[in-house]
Amino acid sequence: MGKQIAIDGPAGAGKSTIAKIVSKKLGFIYVDTGAMYRSAALFFLKKGVDLSDEKVCSGLVDEIDISLKYEDGAQKVILNDEDVTGQIRTEEVSNSASKTAVYPAVRAKLSALQKKIAEENDVVMDGRDIGTVVLPNAFLKIYLTASVECRAERRYKEMLEKGEAPDLETIKEDIRDRDYRDMHRSEAPLKKADDAVEIDSSDMTIDEVADAILNEYKKR
Ligand code: DC
To answer: How crowded is the C-beta side of 142, counted as CA atoms within 13 Å?
Structure first.
C-alpha cells in the first residue's frame, strides 16, 4: 500500500494546481480523478448516446478503458488507446462529466481503478470523493474550497488568456450548477471527510496553499 494524500473540493478551488506541486515536492504520483470522469464522458459523447440515459451509459462502461501515463512528470490520459489529454478540457466535456459521474456503474469502474493505482504507488489524488470513498484511510486528507466569486474570476482570467470571450455571470452560474450536482448526487457526493483539514484558498496564493498542505504532511 502506498502513502496517500487525498485532496477533495469543488471545481475551480485549485486542487490540480496544488496537487501537482505537492506531488512533485514529495516525489509522489499525481492522480487527477476528474480527468478520468471527463474521459468517461468523452467516451459517451463520441458514441453519440443520450447522456441522461443511465441504462445505456451504464451498459457501455465495460467498453471504457482509461489509463494514466506520465511523461516528464506530466499526466497523460489514455482512453481506449487514444491520448485524450487535450480533448477532455472543453466546457462541453466538463459539463457532461458532472452528469455521467452520477451513475453508480461509472463510479464503480473508476474508483476501482483509482484504488488500484493508490495501492501500487505513493499518490496525491484529487477529486470529490477521494477522502470519503476511494481512500478512506488516506494518510492526509485535505478539503480545498474557495468562494464561487473567486473561482469564477480565476476561470474567467484563464479563458481570457486562451483568447476566448468569457462571460463572468455565465461562469458563476455554471460553477453553482456544477457544485449543486456534485454535492447533491446520491452516489459519493462531494463533502468534507470528518478527518479532513479544510483550507479556503480564496485569499491565499498557490504557494501558501501548497506550503499549508506540506506542513500538515510533516506534522503527521
Ligand atoms: O475536477 P474536474 O472538474 O476535472 O471533474 C470533472 C467532473 O467529474 C466533476 O463535475 C465531478 C466529477 N468527479 C467526480 O464525481 N468524482 C471525482 N473523484 C472527480 C471528479
So the answer is: 29
